[in-house]
Structures are given as structure tokens and as C-alpha cells.
Amino acid sequence: MKARVDKHKEYLDQLLDRLQSGQLLTEETFAGLDADRYLDEREQSPFDEQWMEAFRRWGQDAETENDDNESDAGREAAFKQTFRHTGNPDLAGYVSDDIGLICSALKRGGEEDPFILDLLRGYMEGKLPLR
User: Which of 63, 68, 78, 101 is deepest in the core (most CB within 10 A)?
Assistant: First the structure.
């Protein structure tokens, strides 16, 4: 069990460290992005359904948990960085929601969830989901 806790803590720390240092969401992450088209793609199946299923598994009770300053700071940084690079508040909200979902899942034992791992891997590689 300790190895599992260490694994998800390591993933979470790496994600938040890269986010806070400005290395996660860079100009390259958003280069050539047509934000409206991208947001439309996110709202299509199967991505939208998979995201909602993951939210029901890992994020639904996040609002009722104790204050989570670390995840809140990550969401805020994701929103601000995305908005700074794109000027698009809708896109910034989606990226912030992704980061919040990843953080919640990692804190609650979802480090082996395939959808969460895909989101995490993509962001760690500097890519938005579906790109």
C-alpha cells in the first residue's frame, strides 16, 4: 500500500511542480490551436463521456472534501497560464478542470485509471487531450 501511496504522490508532485514552474503549459502546448474547434471536439463522444465517467469516479466528491489548497493552487495556475497563452476563458476553464480531475484522482487512488493516466501523460508531454 505504501508503494501505491508513494506512486500517486510522486505523480501529483511532478504535475504540480511542472505547473507551478511554468513548464507544463507553455506556448508550444497551444501552438496552432483553434480553440473553438478544439472545445467542440472535447464535447463529442467518446471523450466527453469518458471525462464525465472519470469525474463521477474521482472528482464528484472533491467539493465536499476538506480544503485542498494544493489542488486549488494547481487549478488556478492552470487557468491563469492557459488564459495568458490563449486569451480564451473557456479553454482555460477546461484545462483547469482537467488538472483538478487529475489531482483529485491521484489523491483518491486513481493513478491506475486509464483515462486519468492518458490525461496526465498528455499534459506531462506538453499536449492537450485529443491533440
Answer: 78
